[in-house]
Specification:
Order of helices and strands: HHHEHEEHEEHEE
Largest sheet: 5 strands, mixed
Helix content: 40-55%
Strand content: 15-25%
Number of helices: 6
Strand order of the largest sheet: 2-4-5-7-6
Distance between the termini: 44 Å
């Protein structure tokens, strides 16, 4: 599987190498020609800076994925966390985030920043599944057994092709042309570190629903 997934990813150093070679050719010119080519050289330099930043993000994400969480678990209220995540996208004109939250506060024990990152990854993934914009629905509830908090992130985007579904949480696999391919893998890792579970249902052309279940903390002990 690892070898198969690796073929999905282009070498991130290749465009940087090409830009360096191109820049080297541009610099081997006379002073007058250099002035004419200065805008193009500046463009190449800007592209290289962007590629370096992309590599830094890849390195950061790999480091995050490889290391266990060292954050202390505390009581976290899920509804407030979902509202804070939705507010991050309030200025996005092409995106509408609807919250359908439990009327009761829902508490878990966890690392708040980590859980927030998992939700942000899911919302970002949902947004990217709708190239022309659309609606995302965030829901929260208590399961019928009262043992778990259930959170869902629903989009009305492209859906996940059947052939990609068994690889969607695999590190480095991505159906997108950009990104590190670690967002959903990191999300699953975070949820598992919180003794939770993540799953999804998807219909091509109609959208996807990611569902997370996390052990509920007894509200009376807050």
């Amino acid at each position: 599987m690892a070898q198969q997934v690796a073929h999905e990813i282009k070498n991130p150093l290749t465009p940087m190498k090409l830009n360096l070679q191109h820049l080297e050719r541009q610099l081997n010119v006379s002073g007058e020609e250099f002035q004419k080519m200065k805008p193009q050289i500046e463009k190449i330099a800007a592209n290289m800076i962007g590629q370096i930043e992309s590599l830094n993000k890849i390195a950061s994400d790999f480091s995050k994925f490889a290391q266990p969480s060292d954050q202390e678990f505390k009581a976290v209220e899920i509804n407030a966390l979902l509202i804070s995540v939705s507010e991050l996208y309030a200025q996005e004109k092409q995106l509408e985030i609807v919250t359908a939250l439990s009327p009761q506060k829902l508490w878990i024990m966890g690392a708040e920043d980590e859980i927030r990152r998992a939700f942000i990854n899911l919302v970002k993934n949902a947004y990217e599944a709708m190239p022309d914009g659309g609606k995302i629905i965030l829901k929260s509830a208590t399961t019928s057994s009262k043992e778990n908090v259930e959170i869902s992130v629903q989009d009305y985007g492209e859906g996940i092709p059947e052939e990609s579904r068994d690889k969607i949480f695999v590190p480095n696999f991505s159906t997108k042309s950009s990104g590190t391919g670690l967002g959903l893998a990191i999300t699953k890792k975070i949820i598992q570190e919180h003794n939770g579970d993540i799953s999804f249902t998807s219909t091509v052309g109609e959208g996807t629903i990611f569902t997370i279940k996390l052990p509920e903390k007894d509200a009376s002990s807050n």
